[in-house]
Specification:
It holds the Pfam family F420H2_quin_red. One of its GO terms (molecular function) is coenzyme F420 binding. InterPro entries: F420H2_quin_Rdtase, Split_barrel_FMN-bd. It catalyses: oxidized coenzyme F420-(gamma-L-Glu)(n) + a quinol + H(+) = reduced coenzyme F420-(gamma-L-Glu)(n) + a quinone. This is Deazaflavin-dependent oxidoreductase (Nitroreductase family). This protein has about 160 residues and is an alpha+beta fold. It has one domain: Electron Transport, Fmn-binding Protein, Chain A (Pnp Oxidase, Chain A, Roll). Helix content is about 30%, strand content about 30%. It contains 4 helices and 7 strands, in the order H-E-E-E-E-H-E-E-H-H-E. The chain has a 6-stranded antiparallel beta barrel with strand order 2-3-4-7-6-5. Strand 2 and strand 3 form a beta hairpin. It is globular and about 35 Å long.
């Protein structure tokens, strides 16, 4: 998939993502955790978290809604960017940080993070591809190795607020 066709997907989903993030923030996580993604090839009960990272250049706070999975107490997110040839900004910003904040429904955490490798990565990829089947198409559409991030909560924090961004 070219960056242009990935941009079309992101444009369609961009309004959804912004609206989704705003609803999640406005309700303190009461709404936005579970979303029906059947119309884009996902499942009716797809779970979403919010992640919060600081811009590595701008220093501005970014909050993004992302599909997540839970494997053995670690929360997994996928840096797919709709199969674009470039990594999402949040992933590049995360790589410059030792930790990350995330929120699931009405609970938020500071967490450490890591990228699984080898056999573990394959197992995690298979799990996340079942959680959201379009990830398979996204990976086939780019030569970029789509990163997986595994987050381990270390401390509870206050839920995210609209004023955070």
């Amino acid at each position: 998939m070219s960056d242009e066709s990935a941009a079309e997907i992101r444009q369609e989903r961009g309004d959804f993502a912004t609206t989704h993030r705003e609803m999640y923030l406005r309700t303190g996580g009461v709404q936005g955790h579970v979303v029906d993604l059947t119309e884009v090839g996902g499942h009716a009960f797809t779970t979403h978290c919010l992640i919060r990272v600081k811009g590595r250049k701008s220093g501005r706070t970014q909050i993004a809604p992302l599909i997540y999975g839970d494997i053995g107490g670690e929360v997994v997110i996928v840096a797919s960017k709709g199969g674009a040839d470039k990594h999402p900004e949040w992933y590049l910003n995360l790589r410059a940080a030792p930790d990350i904040d995330f929120q699931i429904a009405t609970q938020a955490f500071r967490a450490t993070w890591r990228e699984p490798e080898g056999d573990e990565r394959h197992k995690v990829w298979d799990f996340m591809s079942r959680a959201f089947p379009p990830y398979i198409k996204y990976q086939k559409s780019t030569e970029r190795h789509i990163p997986l991030i595994m987050m381990t909560p270390v401390a509870a924090i206050e839920v995210f607020r609209e004023s955070d961004i």
